[in-house]
Structure formats: structure tokens, C-alpha cells
Amino acid sequence: MDIEAVKQQSMDWTTSLYSSKFTNIPLFINYHRVVGHPASWGSANAFSAARLNDAIAKGYSLRHDAFGMTGYYQSWEKNYVASKNFQRPVILEGGWITDGSAHRYWIDPSEKYREGHPEDVRVGEMEEAENAKVNMMDFRRQEVATWFGKTFNLVQRFISEGGYRIYPTSVTLPEKIERNKTFSISHTWVNKGWGYFPNNIPQWDYKYKVAFGLIDSANSRKQLFVDPTAEPSEWRQGIPQSYSFNGQVTLEPGTYTWGVAIVDSTTTGSQPGIALAVANPNKTTTGWIKLFTVQVVEPCDENDCECNGKDDCDEGTGPNPDDDNDHGSETNPDDDGDGGSDVDQSNNATIFSLSILLSLSVSLPLFIL
Question: Both 154 and 171 in a single domain?
């Protein structure tokens, strides 16, 4: 019997079945050097990378259950996950069970873990989490006590630095718009996390879009503007990404409020689908972050002096200095040293600032060991 052929058939059958039945739920597979082999320890199998690549091609993302266990999580695993950075998200699960005497973690080959100090293991797991750019941490029953009791600072660090933390640093929008005339929207985004926003996984298929909306007095979004070029899965840690696109308003004249969101384009009306890392946002119940008011007006007759904003029509003076109606919501670097993003508040600019979101997301991925 060709054992490698049998393993390949088994892997192919199992991964194909799961990926064909779970098309909306992210799937995860353990990446390790003897994947699909009866043994769980030993030197790397020559076919392991190819088998994992086949699973990834079918839509699988990656997880590992031995972070921090350096005798098991070795250079093969580190190199493999590095080759998949930003192609698929990664889930971390620690290897050593530090509760009671289940594992003698102090015999780890790294020699970094002291007996009676499970917090050393948490430090080792966090170091590898950053190296692998993991998106999620899997806290198991045995590990929760030390993560939260002895190394809560690492939990807080992951909340602020791990995974993705995306927010707009600068948005420039008009404060007055003529109906059916073209206007421009400019915006810049930053990801503060070492991971990435996995909009590219097949189960999501780029469904999340950067969008701006005009919101009425009842907090109902009345018109939507989606930037087709802004792709959140391409945002890398600390590298601003800027975009500009045009739109036209078809609404009735009146006062509206600009809103910004990352919407789920597969929902009815493209509802906001992702919580942005913006501190104390003024937002609607559906998740639109409200910016500032905008006036929608009828187009001006080019011969209408007052409509075109002239100060003294008899003398033919020029338009007001702010004739471009460009209401910039520009975020500056941290001017006051408070750790947040500051904004030039001239022209009634709206404040954006980075928020450390003190909440943990719970996911229920399906995976194959």
C-alpha cells in the first residue's frame, strides 16, 4: 500500500467535503510538518506543505495548537506560516498545559520556562504570536487563569496590537453639494494591528467595502457611496493607505450628515459590518459613524450671482475664499501627546482617534486537526 497516496486521498476527501458544505463559515486547518500522518511528532514529511497548500486553495485558513512549545513548533512551522502571511488569517492555541501537573513545561528545549512560573509560557506564546502575525488567540480552560491572572498585560497588548485594528485617519468631504453634480471624496486608513483584515478569504469573497453615506435626521442612511478601489485586506500595520473617488448626490435638497463605515455588501442595503477602532464615536444604531452635516442644494444657474456665492454682485467681486466647499476632516499625528489621533478643528472638522477596543471577539471556526 502506498501510504502517502492514501493520506493524500483522505486529506483531499475531507477538505473537499468541508469546503463544499461550509461556504460561509471560515474553515481552519492545523499547519504542522506531519499533517495527515498518524504520528504527531517527528521530522517534516516531504508532502506536508503541498497538502496544506491544497487545503488553503479550497478556502482553509491556518491554526496551530502548540504555540510556545518549541520542541513541536519548530522552524518548519515558523517558515510555513511566514510564507502565508496576509494570505490567510492564523489562530493561536498554546501547546503547554500549565494547569496542575499535566505538562512539565519547564523542560521545554528553549530553556526559557521556569518551574512554577506558567507566566513564562505565556510570554513565549506571545512572542510567537507576533512572529506569525496571528489574528486570533484561542484561550483554553487550563490557560485562562495565567493569561488573565499573571499576564493580563499580554492580553491587553494583543487587544491593541494583535489581529487587525483599522480606522480612518483622514477624511475629506464637501459640506455643500449640488444635486447631480460630481464631487470628490478623499480618505486615508491605517491598520494598527500586526495581523490583517481577512476580506480575501473565499467565505467572505471581498464582501466588506469602505463606504460613505448620507444620513437623514432620523439616522437613516439615504444614499450610499462605495469606494471600489479601497481594499481592507491590503492594509498592513502602520502603513497609511489613501484613496479618492467621485460621486453624485441624487437626494432631495436638505440637511444630511456624512457617515463612514465598512459595510457588508451582501446584506440588504449594505449595512455596516465591521466595528472601526474609533474612540467614542457618534454613530447610528446600525453602525454608521457620523461625521458632520452637509447641505444638498439644487444646482446653481451659472448666471445667478448670489447662488454662485459672490459677496457683492453689483461690483462683481469674486466668490468667498472657501469656494471649493471642501470640508476636510483631517487627522493629524498626536499633537498633544495623549496617545490618540488629533484633528485640525478648523472648518468644524470632525475628530477621529484611535481606540483600544477592550472587548474580545468570539468566533466559532470549523477546523481539521
Answer: no
